[in-house]
Amino acid sequence: MRLLLTTSQGIEDLARAELEGLLSSIGVPFRVEGKPLGVEGRVLAEVGEAFYTDEKGRKRELSVSTYLNERSRLLHRVIVEIASERFEGIGEEEPERALKKIEEFVSGLPVERYVKTSESFAVRSFRKGEHKITSIDISKTVGKAIFERLERFGTPRVNLDHPAVIFRAELIGEVFFLGIDTTGDSSLHKRPWRVYDHPAHLKASIANALIELAKPDGGSFIDPFCGSGTIPIELALRGYGGRIIGLEKYRKHLRGAEMNALSAGVLERIEFILGDATRLSEYVESVDFAVSNLPYGLKIGRKSAIPRLYMDFFSELAKVLEKRGVFITTEKRAIEKAIEENGFDIKHHRLIGHGGLMVHTYVIE
Ligand SMILES: C[S@@+](CC[C@H](N)C(=O)[O-])C[C@H]1O[C@@H](n2cnc3c(N)ncnc32)[C@H](O)[C@@H]1O
Question: What is the domain extent for residue 126?
């Protein structure tokens, strides 16, 4: 079986490492490929069969996709591949011809293996690149081809709102892909614990990527701009044994973070402090790891305030940080100046896709 796993752009390597760890832990044979066909934010895994022994000692097959949906912290979707194909020149083709090609291809696929006639289905599409067709065109065409094929086996049922089976059709550049989306309509990065929705919250998958980059070893950990608590909550959910602190200037967000932590079942694991990160040393004497997504210009109104805020924060951080910091922001100039002028070294830099932007991420020591 081939699985297409999706995640944020720029963290494919970390998602791949997590995936390899999860697959190894269940003893399933596998082969993993990062960015298949050069597509960003994707990992492909070819996996064999996995088994477990039930309470009566019987050998049972383990669903690898269910296991990944339940365990992964970095993936967004787990999709079982039905087929993929490169359609040369599809970007320039007139809509009718392009859709005809897709329809003919899908009609020849054994989709009846993936949906029982008693089950309802829907097609969700994703398109990226230059094409004369839209994702709605793709959904309709693929839906029609699947429907007509299933008619040979019974009376197919379409349910666009609450389908039992979700087919996922993707056209990325010239590559067409059809699979079964085992994750469902809500991406895995939308955590069920989120009861307070901060306007600038970080995706939980990216929060975990930042934690991976920080490599906390059990020492004390702070998110000095914790907002709704995504980073400390995700760290606590990983079973982290060390001290975890979340600092936030605004009471409303701090209360929200506490509500989220309560809903995640980790409230007692996190010390939430109402305070100003530019006076960090007043709240903590020393801390081993600091990980945060910093306030961005556009999101806090006055953009001119950012360089000052970053400078003041990093000068405080220099007084307390013992090991490593990981920060993500759109404000490249302001952060680099603040990092360097306060005596930190940039150990690693990468761009991560977040909220439609590629955001700068720094590991500093
Ligand atoms: C980009 S948001 C962080 C979002 C958070 N990672 C989450 O997932 O919800 C930045 C946060 O920094 C807070 N903030 C702004 N200035 C601050 C300061 N001087 N000290 C502490 N927090 C501050 C804002 O209120 C906002 O909640």
Answer: 2-181
- Same domain? For 33 and 173 the reply is yes
Question: Which residue from 201, 203, 253, 361 has its CB within 8 A of the most atoms of ligand 1, so it is best to mutate?
Answer: 253
Same structural domain for residues 70 and 173? yes
pLDDT category at 52 given cuts 50, 70, 90 is: confident
Q: Residue 303: its pLDDT value, please?
A: 59
- Domain match, 120 and 238 both: no
pTM score, two decimals?
0.94
Which residues touch 168 (CB under 8 Å, ≥6 apart)? 77, 79, 123, 124, 125, 126, 177, 178, 179, 180, 181
To test the pocket of ligand 1, the residue of 190, 197, 226, 244 to mutate (highest count of ligand atoms within 8 Å of its CB) is: 226
For ligand 1, atom 13: residue with the closest CA: 225
Cα of 317 vs its chain's centroid, Å: 28
Residue 197 placed within a domain: no
Q: Is residue 333 part of a domain?
A: yes
